[in-house]
Write a structure and sequence with these properties.
Blueprint: H1 13-92, H2 98-112, E1 116-123, E2 128-133, E3 140-146, E4 154-160, E5 166-173, H3 183-191, E6 195-196, E7 200-202, E8 207-217, E9 223-231, H4 232-241, E10 249-253, E11 259-262, H5 265-271, H6 287-299, E12 302-308, E13 311-322, E14 325-334, H7 335-399, H8 413-422, E15 426-432, E16 438-446, E17 451-453, E18 457-459, H9 464-471, E19 476-478, H10 488-495, E20 503-510, E21 513-521, H11 530-560, E22 577-579, E23 600-612, H12 614-618, H13 623-644, E24 648-652, E25 655-660, H14 670-691, E26 698-712, E27 718-722, H15 724-734, E28 742-745, H16 746-752, E29 756-766, E30 770-780
Parallel strand pairs: 26-28
Antiparallel strand pairs: 1-2, 1-9, 2-3, 3-4, 4-5, 6-8, 7-8, 8-9, 10-11, 10-14, 12-13, 13-14, 15-16, 15-21, 16-17, 16-18, 19-20, 20-21, 22-24, 23-25, 23-26, 24-25, 26-27, 28-30, 29-30
Helix pairs in contact: 1-2, 1-7, 7-8, 13-14
């Protein structure tokens, strides 16, 4: 290929823009323009049809409203006009024919006006007459009451046929009945003019009734009230018989939302147990009417549209005057009842437009995807090249690390490179210790905080499922570690505290099986760099092997070397030494045991304190058994102190104090000997207490630091040490996290971290020292 044909995309951005413009920009813009035009035309057509349909619906409802209003007015007019006519007839008639006028006029009105239920007439003395329908059609029943308030007060009942012939007459006690106490009488007399009562229930007929009453003065100067009672059942039947669209309804309400007549009257009456004051709209059964009435309260009379449960309704409210009050005529109909044909046509056109738009959009999408596919492939190739180059640089940085296979170096570059390559939140390298039952975190790197940590220790007892999954030697990929049976325990113990969720595990294989594991938390690119993780596992396996051989060689050298023999000091049983202080090196001169020269300052002395619980001292009932157990423990500690070359070991009550490196010039090997002694003493004490069936209630603390030493007393003299190291070692023992553990200070950790395994406990406040870190000694590397 000619060099002229080679194109570098990194130096030709204008070509990329032009390719994007012709392949994607122009086609997409054209499709979008067509879609916009079609959608605009369709939406405009739909809105035009819908607006016309709503206008037609409102006009139809207004016509229907006028018709209903006239019918309701015609329904109420006989009561209003009839009461006025009867008042004039009775007011100007002679008293002796007053009852005949009342009977004749009232019976005529009842026969010709079906909505009239009964007539009342009463005077200011309490005399009362009522005329109502009889037992059969055409019959009338007249009831009169005289002598109100006296024992003679009785009701006289007469039943007559349509010709006025008396059919039956009887009397009943009137009791305390007094018409003057009823609202239709008292309110009318008080008003001095025609009064319409609120709807009320008539106990005899169980019908909701409304009364129109007028007052007048009789020739005998008494105040009379003439009342016409109208049953609302007829009005209710009329409103229910109306056909408003296909499913529209009408209802009459007063200004307080009490139902007078119309849709749902029977359900409302049953729910209110016949009490008109409780007959209100139920929002659950009549949500549309309730919302329409609320709109009326806010905006007044008129037509408007409401939306309930996703469906639109047309509502109209009109005023119907009833005396001094007024009723509200409320009509409700679904919007599509009157305009179904128009709405169907609009929806059909809209669906057609949507279909065309969808097809155009589909073709445009296919064109866009085809163009994007080529760009995506080019991007994937570029990304693969970038990942390969990045991995090459990462491998180069790992390979050029000078201390990569040095077992004494932590090689922090391994976890850092793993986290960077996989974009993991945390990367960690774990090692299975020689006992096969413990998993120790060698190094953990948090990429977000850019910090390293280590020393975390877990056992197979707590993580059996996780150990079983790792022991197969296959990689483990878990999206949610908290729900997977294999990683649930590992998530609870280790991951949950850091807030990570997904987990990628790759075992580190040795010659006889897995010797460790690499974990990546929240690593989106873990599977993409799987081969890179494999290479790091090989490096980690080689480092574990080197650390193992180094630790074995160090142990063999230590066992073969002769322990330092210090010249024994003068025997003095009063000092309580299990191992008397050894030879003291002064100013670089050969050792001496002259106690008079042992006083002074020692810059770096290693001190270990073993704190024994009172349970060990008091658990045995037999004092001889107690002394035997403590004696066996003391002998074992003496032997270990001799073997490890400690300077002295002394038992003080429930504490055992061990000293190493007590010299004027610091002994760098003293802390190493003390750590070996601590591990050996822990194992021996655990075995003895287990054999004696006692719990391992002891704790161990170690520190390195300056102390003062000197002889105290006169005869006999006692050698004693005190200072910062002594106090710190005792606090390490007292504050150890668990029984049987060895807690060390940061000074000890800094000197031994290349040779022993530690688990970090965190930062703690030590009185007199401030904030410091402490660690738990787990074992040898």
């Amino acid at each position: 290929m000619s060099t002229d044909e080679i194109v570098d995309p990194t130096i030709a951005p204008s070509d990329q823009f032009r390719r994007f413009l012709f392949h994607i920009g122009i086609p997409v813009a054209g499709v979008v323009s067509v879609i916009a035009v079609i959608a605009g035309v369709g939406w405009h057509s739909y809105r035009t049809v819908r607006t016309g349909a709503l206008t037609l619906t409102h006009d139809l409802l207004v016509s229907q409203q006028d018709y209903v209003a006239k019918e309701v007015s015609s329904f109420l007019m006989p009561a209003s006009a009839g009461a006025i006519v009867a008042r004039d007839m009775l007011e100007h008639g002679a008293p002796e024919v007053e009852q005949k006028i009342f009977n004749g006029y009232s019976s005529t009105m009842m026969r010709n006006v079906p909505q009239i239920q009964s007539f009342y007439i009463a005077d200011s003395d309490g005399n009362f007459s009522t005329l109502e329908h009889g037992e059969k059609p055409g019959q009338t029943a007249l009831t009169t009451l005289h002598d109100v308030g006296t024992p003679k007060a009785i009701f006289t009942h007469e039943l007559r046929d349509d010709n006025g012939k008396l059919l039956k007459q009887w009397q009943t006690p009137a009791g305390t009945y007094d018409p003057r106490g009823h609202g239709w009488f008292a309110d009318t007399v008080k008003a001095g003019q025609e009064v319409w009562t609120r709807p009320y229930m008539v106990e005899v007929t169980k019908q909701v009734t409304i009364t129109a009453a007028v007052p007048y003065k009789g020739s005998d100067d008494k105040t009379y009230v003439y009342a016409i009672n109208m049953s609302l059942n007829h009005l209710n039947n009329f409103l229910n018989s109306l056909k408003i669209g296909e499913s529209g309804t009408a209802i009459l309400l007063d200004q307080d939302e009490h139902v007078v007549a119309g849709h749902g009257m029977q359900e409302t009456q049953a729910k209110a147990h016949g009490d008109p004051s409780r007959m209100t709209l139920d929002p659950e059964k009549f949500p549309v009417m309730t919302k329409a009435f609320d709109e009326y309260r806010v905006h007044g009379y008129g037509a408007r549209t409401v939306k309930v449960k996703g469906r639109r309704y047309v509502t109209i409210t009109a005023n119907l005057p009833v005396g001094k009050d007024s009723w509200v005529l409320l009509m409700v109909a679904p919007e599509d009842d009157f305009s179904r044909f128009a709405m169907a046509d609009g929806r059909q056109n809209l669906l057609f437009f949507i279909l065309v738009v969808t097809m155009a959009l589909g073709f445009g999408l296919l064109l866009f995807l085809q163009a994007r596919r080529g760009d995506r492939l080019r991007n994937q190739i570029s990304q693969a090249r970038a990942v390969a180059n990045y991995e090459s640089h990462a491998l180069q940085s790992v390979a050029t690390y000078p201390e990569l296979f040095n077992p004494e170096d932590n090689a922090l570059v391994l976890t850092e490179t793993l986290a960077d390559q996989s974009h993991a939140r945390r990367a960690a390298i774990w090692r299975i210790l020689h006992d096969g039952h413990t998993l120790m975190c060698i190094d953990s790197y948090d990429r977000q905080q850019d910090v390293h940590s280590g020393g975390f220790e877990m056992s197979t007892t707590d993580l059996k499922s996780f150990f079983d999954a790792v022991s197969h030697g296959d990689a483990l990929v878990v999206t949610d570690a908290s729900t997977d049976d294999r990683t649930t325990a590992f998530y609870r113990v280790y991951m949950r505290a850091f807030g990570s969720k997904s987990l990628f595990c790759n075992p580190i294989l040795g010659s006889s099986g897995p010797v460790g594991v690499i974990t990546l938390e929240d690593a989106p690119r873990a599977e993409m760099v799987y081969h890179f993780v494999d290479m790091i596992t090989g490096v980690a396996a080689a480092r574990f092997s080197a650390q193992h051989y180094t630790a074995v060689a160090a142990a063999r050298e230590e066992l073969e070397s002769e322990p330092p023999q210090g010249s024994e000091g003068p025997e003095d049983t009063s000092q309580g030494f299990l191992l008397a202080p050894g030879a003291l090196s002064i100013n670089g001169q050969p050792g001496t045991t002259d106690l008079s020269q042992m006083e002074g300052f020692y810059p770096a002395v290693t001190i270990m304190v073993i704190s024994l619980s009172d349970m060990i001292m008091t658990a045995q009932n037999d004092p001889a058994a107690n002394i035997k157990l403590i004696d066996e423990m003391a002998i074992a500690l003496q032997d270990i102190a001799h073997q490890c070359g400690l300077y002295s070991i002394r038992m003080l009550g429930h504490r055992v104090v061990c000293v190493a490196g007590c010299s004027r010039t610091p002994d760098k090997t003293a802390v190493f000997h003390m750590a070996n002694a601590a591990l050996m003493m822990r194992e021996n004490v655990l075995a003895m207490l287990s054999k004696a069936d006692l719990d391992p209630v002891f704790r161990i603390g170690i520190d390195v630091g300056p102390v003062f030493g000197g002889m105290l007393g006169k005869n006999p003299q006692a050698f004693n040490l005190w200072g910062d190291a002594m106090g710190m070692a005792e606090m390490m023992a007292q504050g150890a996290p668990d029984v049987g553990t060895i807690q060390v200070s940061e000074n000890v950790y800094q000197r031994l971290r290349q040779y022993f395994l530690f688990r970090e406990r965190g930062r703690f406040f030590i009185p007199g020292m401030g904030l410091t870190r402490t660690y738990v000694l787990a074992g040898r590397r």
